[in-house]
Specification:
This protein has 316 residues and is an alpha/beta fold. The chain has a 6-stranded mixed β-sheet with strand order 6-7-8-9-11-10. It is 38% helix and 17% strand. β8 and β9 form a beta hairpin. The protein has 2 domains: 189 residues, inorganic pyrophosphatase (n-terminal core) (Alpha-Beta Complex), CATH 3.90.1640; 119 residues, Roll (Diaminopimelate Epimerase, Chain A, domain 1). α2 runs parallel beside α3 and α4 packs parallel to α6.
């Protein structure tokens, strides 16, 4: 991918609208907001808008703009951190004059007029930093940009615990924290959970099923979520919980939805699980993916398939 082609489009556009995926995580908001702040710093005369739905309890990190339909007519639209079009938050993303996709997920849905996808990158926030560095002054860089990109990298690397953390990732993080923001305060805020979220993690530990080979799963009923007073985005705090157990190799968390099938969070310490996710209306990274289960029968099927993957991995 010629990064100069992306920069040329940014320079040429008077209005730039940046989208990210639904149910945003720190990388979605960090890459979206970081890119937006970088463009605005370099081109204060341009209209730069952040588009998407509710950000949940991450509104302390970034908030969205009220984008009118009329803004799209001659706009450059950029989607970040969004592998496939159904997951783009605000489906007007395809209404602009030109569309660019920037992402670090596998490129299963190759949409857009320009596409820059690097699955080896830790996060899309890391890619935005690389774009800024390549730009050599054609994009801006300041503390606001650094804070957002750092949050995205910390979020998608699990605070640098996941195997997507490369030497380059750490070099980028080191460069970012040299800017004038408080990385310790940001880390503490990202690590913070509510008492209700802690009780949900306790529920996961109490109800987790772990096979002899280390395939783990738990179903979180909607009634539990409602009793605890949690929103769907707050439930995400429990996704990594089973991975803290030494006996667990890979796991699935099935979260019952009010108006949809079960949302399935798949995580792994080794076995590749995104193929399993793709077989059940999902996808994602090799060790971190999402899927859907229509009913108890599909939940049982996913549990069986996960056990097969783990058993084969352990036998290697």
């Amino acid at each position: 991918m010629n990064l100069d082609a992306i920069l040329d489009q940014i320079e040429a556009a008077d209005t730039i609208i940046i989208h990210r995926h639904v149910n945003p995580d720190p990388d979605a908001l960090g890459s979206q907001g970081g890119l937006g702040a970088s463009i605005q710093a370099a081109y204060p005369q341009k209209t730069v808008l952040l588009a998407g739905g509710d950000v949940g309890n991450l509104d302390w990190l970034s908030t969205m703009d009220d984008v009118p339909d009329s803004a799209y007519a001659q706009a450059l639209v950029i989607t970040v951190d969004t592998a496939d079009t159904p997951r783009v938050s605000d489906q007007r993303f395809n209404s602009g004059k030109f569309l660019i996709k920037i992402d670090h997920h596998p490129n299963d849905d190759d949409y857009g007029d320009l596409t820059w996808v690097v699955p080896e990158a830790s996060s899309t926030s890391e890619l935005i930093y690389d774009l800024i560095q390549h730009a050599a002054g054609r994009l801006g860089f300041n503390a606001a940009v650094a804070r957002l990109l750092y949050a995205g990298i910390v979020g998608d690397t699990g605070r640098f615990l996941f195997n997507n953390t490369s030497a380059h990732t750490l070099e980028v993080a080191a460069a970012l924290i040299q800017e004038d923001f408080d990385p310790t305060a940001l880390n503490n805020r990202m690590n913070q959970i509510s008492l209700a979220q802690a009780k949900l993690q306790s529920y996961v530990f109490d109800h987790l099923q772990v096979t002899a080979h280390g395939a783990a799963s738990v179903v979180i009923p909607l009634s539990v979520v409602q009793t605890l007073g949690l929103t769907s985005d707050q439930v995400h705090a429990a996704v990594g919980t089973p991975g803290r157990l030494g006996e667990v190799v890979a796991w699935a968390i099935f979260v019952e939805q009010a108006d949809a099938p079960y949302r399935v969070n798949l995580r792994s310490k080794g076995p590749i699980i995104n193929t399993l996710a793709k077989a059940h209306h999902g996808g994602g990274h090799p060790l971190a993916s999402g899927a859907k289960a229509q009913d108890q029968s599909e939940i049982a099927a996913i549990q069986t398939e996960l056990e097969t993957l783990v058993t084969q991995f352990v036998a290697q």
